[in-house]
Structure formats: structure tokens, C-alpha cells
Amino acid sequence: MGNKFEITNNIRKLRFFADEMTQQQLAEKAGVSRQTIIAIEGGKYSPSLELAFRIAYAFSVQIGEVFDCRVAENKKE
Amino acid sequence: MSYQVAKNVTNIISGTVVLIVYLFYVSGSYQDGLLVMDDLKYWAQVMLIFIGIGIAMAILVQIVFHILFSIGLAVKESIKNGNCNDQEIERTIKLEMVEDEMGKLIELKSMRVSYSTAGVGFVASLILLYFEYPPFMALNVLFVSFCVGSILDGCTQLYYYKRGV
Predict the structure, then answer these.
(1) What class has domain A5-71?
(2) Is the CB of residue A42 less than 8 Å away from at least one CB of chain B?
(3) A interface mutation test: which of B80, B88, B98 has the most A CBs within 10 A?
(4) CB pairs under 8 A between A and B
(5) pLDDT of residue A77
(6) Buried-most residue among B8, B68, B86, B144 (CB within 10 A)?
(7) Cα–Cα distance list, B67 to B64, B88, B95, B100, B132 (Å)
């Protein structure tokens, strides 16, 4: 079986550097609800590729600066 | 409490109220000896009435909920900004009520739960008929399973909004 990937994000950090942008403002820019931004920021929801690009666009950065992916360690091994 | 969570809570409450009222009505009529067990037309009439009550109540509760939610947002907005700008409040309300990809995914997952519940109820009612239980019992199991399915739909949505997808 393929490895399990864990998606992390830097949204909190990017919001801080974007003049402490609120979750509501980011939600407005990305065209989603605040609830969705909260879930993405907390790692509870992995957005679609389109939404990931829209979030990156809202911060004017590359998508790789917002989201990162690493292989989760297999606990059985 | 976000818009989606509050909406689900009101849906669960209205669904539960309809189910409880129905169960009280049926058990009360049974105790008073008013139930016509074999008259399927009577049961169809009772269930149609309760479906109507359920739909009317859901619409009413949604209207009241949206009015109260909008008032709540307006008050919060005016406290935060110090003034009551109608356009700003309207914009905030629209933003809160937006339905996005996460909402749609959660809706799909919860729908699966409610369909499964209704399906289990349907199979249970068929099993009852197979074992020669009276048809009104099978009808009631079917009706209750649909009601429980709609309540579970709301509960599943709440769960996914809290825990994440």
C-alpha cells in the first residue's frame, strides 16, 4: 500500500504576516465560509486543489508556501 | 456558534419534536384504545398529517432561525464597529451563510447516514411483514426510521463540523 501523507499548512503564520488578517477576511478572499478556514487551519480538512490555490492567491504566495506535505510515519513498523 | 452548526441544531430539534409528538400521539391513542390497527388508510392519513406538520415546522423553524441569526449578527456587528451599517451587516450575513466545498462534502456524508438508516428501517419493516406482524407495525417502523434518519443527518453534520472531514 502507498504511504500515508500528512498535509500541514502555514495559514496562521501567513495571516500574521499579512497584517494579522482575520479568518473572516481570508474566507472572504477565498470565497468560502469562516468555518472552512478554521477547519483547514486546524488541519481538520484538506482543501481541494482549487481552494488551495485560491488561499495561496489570497496571500500572494506560491501554493507550496501555504501547504506542505510529508510522509506520515507508519506506527506498525 | 457558526451558522452551519446553529442551523443543524435547529434541524435536529425540530425533527426530534415531530418524532416525539408522533410517538406520544400513537402511544396515547393505543392506550385509549382509539387505534385502528388494520385500517391502513387511517395510518396513511396519520402519517401524511405528520409529514405535513414536519415540513411546516421545518420551514417555520428555519424562518425564525434566520431572522434570529441575522439579528444576532447585526447586534454583534454594531457592538464591534460601534455603528449599525446596514450594508456591512448584510455582507457579514452573506459571508456567514455561504455554502462551500466542505459544506457540500459534509452534506453528502450525512446524507449517506440518513439513507442507510432509512434503508435499515425498510428492511426491518419487510422482516416484520415476513414474520406476519401486522402491516401497521411495518409502516410505523418505516416512518420512525425516516424520522430518525433525518435527525441522524443533522447529528452527523454536527459531528463533521466539530471533528473535521
Answers:
(1) mainly alpha
(2) yes
(3) B98
(4) 51
(5) 47
(6) B8
(7) 5, 17, 16, 22, 50
Q: What is the pLDDT of residue A74?
A: 62
In chain B, what are the domain boundaries? Answer: 3-163
How is chain A split into domains, by residue range? Answer: 5-71
User: CA–CA separation, A15 vs A24, rounded Å?
Assistant: 11
Does pLDDT of B46 surpass 50?
Answer: yes
> DSSP 3-state assignment of A9?
strand
Per-residue pLDDT of A21-53, as tens digits, reads 999 899 999 999 888 999 999 989 999 999 999
With a pLDDT cut of 70, the percent of chain A lying above it is 92
User: What confidence score (pLDDT) does residue B33 get?
Assistant: 79
Confidence of residue B78 (pLDDT cuts 50, 70, 90): confident
Nearest to B164 among A24, A45, A48 (CB): A45
Q: Tell me which of A6, A9, A33, A37 to substitute to probe the interface with B (most B C-beta atoms closer than 10 Å).
A: A33
- The pLDDT value recorded for residue B79 is 78
**Which residues in B6-35 are b (16+ Cβ under 10 Å) and which e?**
ebbbbbbebbeebbeebeeebeeeeeeeeb
Pick the closest to residue B146 from B128, B112, B119 (CA basis).
B119
Helix (H) or strand (E) holding B40: helix B40-81
Residue B127 one-letter amino acid = I
> Quick one: which H or E segment has residue A69?
strand A67-71
Return the C-alpha cell found at B94. 452573506
At A44, give phi and psi (nearest 5°).
-90, -10
